[in-house]
Amino acid sequence: MAKRLRAGDVIPEFRFDTPYHPQQSFYELLEGDKPVFLVFLRNFGHPLTRHYIMEYIKSAGSLHSARLVCVVKTKPQAISKAIPEGAMPYGLMCDAEGVLSRFFAIPSEKSRMKCFSLKAMKIINEAKKQGFRPQPGEEWPLPLTLLVGPAGRVLLAHYGATLTDLPEDCMAMEELAADLLPTLPGEWLAAAPAAPVADSFSAAFEAAAPAEPAEDGLGAALEPAEPAEPAAEAPGASFDTGFDVPPEPAAGNGEEESFGASLAEFDIPAAPAAPAAPEVHPEAPSAPAVDLSALGFGAGK
To answer: What's the mean pLDDT when you consider all of the chain?
Structure first.
């Protein structure tokens, strides 16, 4: 049943746990006039996850065209004990047993040469100075970035080629959403009736290798039926260039973060051409005092 998602696919309804509320409806999460970015990360104690969690906190006020939910492989109680409810400016979805990762066919890579970017090496090396110790021979799950509209319609699916091939911050997500959404078919953004909630997520994996039972991760689940045939992709509906460019073997100009190169325009807002009332956005919140050190490096499930 596991398959790579692409623009136009429909994700079935399922239930998920947040650190503070169990058994939430995925389709209810998608209700509203803004689609949702789902960014799949590792466990909350991993230095790569911590880096992006904090970058998204600091830049959360820049995201206006969509909303953000980070999917982490950590049990809800591990996060709720360390971070009080309301401290995070965006949502968290707990997938401690990796059920969603398997269902959406998120790959892992054993070779560091294939999945490490210069940015990833810098983050890992800095974490080692603070006590982080990678497990010998461990696999490195790659990131997945989804933009999902009403009733589970996938508007964008980007499987990362490296460990840092995902949006650097919320400014990058805003730029992507603002450019992409006007190019999509109107029916992709229209609300549709929700599919019934399946009784068991594990049924989706009966044809594949059996998965470990989830204790505190996702409860009930994805409908195992095949999604509807995707509509033809509109211009701009696919995203092939990636958020991150793997490093070249020869020495060069340092890391190339393809998605961060075009964000200078966010630093200086354009002056209004006339004294008309300017568009008003909520002020960017100051970064909340979120102490991730309480989770410990490598604290996962």
So the answer is: 75
